[in-house]
Amino acid sequence: MKYLVLLGFSLLTSIANAASYDCTVTKKLDFENVYQPTQMEKYKFSARIHDSDKPKVDRCSIKPNDNKVTCDSYDIDRVEVDKHVGYKKFYLFKSQFDIQLFPDMKFVENNGRGGIAFGTCKLL
């Protein structure tokens, strides 16, 4: 019985520490483009950060031909927390991708191939 209580408590604390964020891209650029407001509105770039024991990031946009949101989901390889500022950085090594979430709910996405996006997140 003692072990069941301990197991239940550890499951509750791990669930309590999990959080998801819906992040809207407000500025995006790469080697060839600085995306204009009309493009931002058309494609509705966003990210969803799932900060849990098995963190994931979903990168989403509207697929122009279908006019519906599509998302690619990535399992995060490593999460680091800055001990001075308190931001979290989520790394995906294979794709050379990272996303940083700051305490003020701003984020920066670096796709690792010359593209970067900025925006604001809200807790889901």
Write up what this structure looks like.
This protein has 124 residues and is an alpha+beta fold. Helix content is 19%, strand content 48%. It contains 2 helices and 9 strands, in the order αβαββββββββ. The protein has a 9-stranded antiparallel β-sheet with strand order 4-3-2-1-9-8-7-6-5. Strand 7 (97-101) and strand 8 (106-110) form a beta hairpin. The chain is globular.
- The number of helical elements comes to 2
- Uncertain runs are 1-16
Rg on CA atoms, Å:
17 Å
Lateral arrangement of strands in the main beta sheet:
4-3-2-1-9-8-7-6-5
| Category from helices, strands and their pairing | alpha+beta
Tertiary shape: globular
Order of helices and strands: HEHEEEEEEEE
By DSSP, the count of extended strands is 9
Taking all residues together, what is the mean pLDDT?
87
Cα(first) to Cα(last) distance is 35 Å
Tell me the β content: over 45%
Describe the biggest sheet?
9 strands, antiparallel
Residue share in helices? Answer: 10-25%
